[in-house]
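The records we work with from here on pair a chain with its fold. Here is one such record, which you should read through line by line:
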Amino acid sequence: KTSSMNSYIKPPNWDINMDGVCNIFDVTLLSTKWMQTGAPGWIREDINNDGTVNIGDVSIVSIYWMHTWP
């Protein structure tokens, strides 16, 4: 038995609004959830999936600033 292969692209965590680029719009979305907590990865703004939207998430955005993806 065989099955067909399907591929997909999952947006990177640092592209919060999933528009293909890490920029000020992603930072703005991150700031609206600043210091909120939940289960790890509970919202896209929790970029590093540690359960808190904080400086760790901002650091990741700064690393990927103006990076694009398909």
